Amino acid sequence: LTPENCPHRKPEDSEAQKAGIPPEEFPQRALGGWEGFTSSRILASFRDDCIIPAIPKGSYWVGIGIDHGEGAGRQVAVLVYASETGVYVVDEEVSREATSPEMDADGILAMLARNELGLHDVDEIIGDTNTAGKLAPGRMANEELEEALASRAGYRRAPVSIHGARKGPGSVGRRWRLMNAGFARGSLKLHARCKAFIRSAQHFRGEEDLKHPLDAGGYIMAEKLRTAVRSVPGRLTIDRTGPSTGGGIKVTRTNR
Fold this sequence. Notes:
Elements: H1 11-19, H2 26-29, E1 51-52, E2 58-67, E3 76-83, E4 86-94, H3 101-114, E5 124-127, H4 138-153, E6 162-164, H5 171-185, E7 188-191, H6 195-203, H7 208-226, E8 236-240, E9 250-253
Parallel strand pairs: 1-7, 2-5, 4-7, 5-6
Antiparallel strand pairs: 2-3, 2-8, 3-4, 8-9
Helix pairs in contact: 3-4, 5-7, 6-7
């Protein structure tokens, strides 16, 4: 709503329209940006202090959630840590084009490597069973990705299996409610580098293009948001958090 972008409008008309825009929507509607928050967003409890620059020291369960899709932004993997004190969305891998299982596997392994992890450090992986355009059916997509992960990581068989997401009536809304509750009580935090997940949390009102990061994260973190992680002791210990993007992380591991 600037004179440069709206030369056909009178300045006073633009100013009058801007005056009626809610503050949380001003960056989008007046400035054409994606900063700020959308009113009536589904994850209404999400706020700026849910974003953190580094993961706290501690022992963590490690999981990956995957939403399968065909095309840019539609294949998403989310790395999640959990402990009795909270759930952390640590990193994400988002497709930039249509991908193959091998490309998806390379992206996931690169995401793990950024966090000084390997496939053997992951406790659980959950993948979508409704592929939303992926060429293979849901079960086959998970199986093919699991085989690709094993091959690319140098295993005869992957050290962790990809399980299908539990779905049923009301399951999507339940995952959103659990995330909302986690944001509200401060037990769900997002690392600042998770740009796609943050954007979705700020603005999602049901749009398909914003849904994929939330689905990927929801599959893997729903049960961890519902209950404290007591049954699976954390094998990954972070004892130096390092600078904002994760550099300098020092991790140690214990056996299963």
